[in-house]
What we know:
Radius of gyration: 20 Å
CATH topology: Rossmann fold
Mean pLDDT: 92
Largest sheet: 7 strands, mixed
Shape: globular
Bound molecules: S-adenosylmethionine
Strand content: 15-25%
Structural class: alpha/beta
Low-confidence stretches: none
Distance between the termini: 52 Å
Amino acid sequence: MTNEAAHAREAIARQDKWHHTIEVAPGVFTPGMQDTARLLQQVSLPADLTGKRVLDIGARDGFFTFEAERRGAGEVVALDNEPPDHTGFSIAAELLGSKATYVTENVYALTPERFGSFDVVLFLGVIYHLRHPLLALDRIHDVCAPGARVLVETHMLDEGLVDDEGNFHKLTSLNPHLPGLPLVQYLPGRMLGNDFTSQWAPSRVALEGWLRGAGFEPESTWQDAFRGGATARRVDLAPTGERAVDEASAWSMDTGEVLAATKMAPRSA
Ligand SMILES: C[S@@+](CC[C@H](N)C(=O)[O-])C[C@H]1O[C@@H](n2cnc3c(N)ncnc32)[C@H](O)[C@@H]1O
């Protein structure tokens, strides 16, 4: 074994639990519980990120952060509400000589004033954990440059509706029309695989609706059993779009017009 490989193995052993499988030295991989190579194929990360500013939300051990750097990104910001030394991020970043900026922060705290704008946003394996998934998408839109692309990956409903005994059902097996509807299952407590951090399962159509409502035009979607995702482009917010729903009292229910007398102040970030 080379010195580099021995050093990498020793560093890997300092972290008890790895989520990502990362090659941190030639032929030396972190023992991630996730099939990270498969996920990389599924999410369609652009092959060339030359000069792009990339945000990796929920970066965890950093596989996608480091992959974005490897694909030429000009700058990568890794954001996670766990500090980098609670996960494998610090160890892997050091072994790989990563120059990414790590920010320990909540996705809801994203603002253009603090973070600037990004060309590509990775939002993988996070949205179904959040109490406020739509607020997170709004915050992400706020930090997207015009035409930016967001890659979302999530637990999904279409093949994984959970019943009160914890069994999974395909929507089609319940009713062939259900997959065409924007359905979201709320999973309180430990309904999903005994995991209290998992709260939502959107159907593919609902995920597209969530994205459109937040100002993203879906370009492609994919599904693999209980998981799936979408790639979407940032578009300008329509003045009467779904994001204005919190201000519904300012609209005429009949015409959809803004009521001049109650015109709202611009929404703050
Ligand atoms: C299941 S892991 C996904 C890791 C990686 N993105 C992937 O798909 O392989 C979810 C990550 O999101 C982070 N996370 C959860 N809620 C968050 C929040 N509100 N703001 C920022 N990060 C969050 C967790 O700490 C965790 O590292």
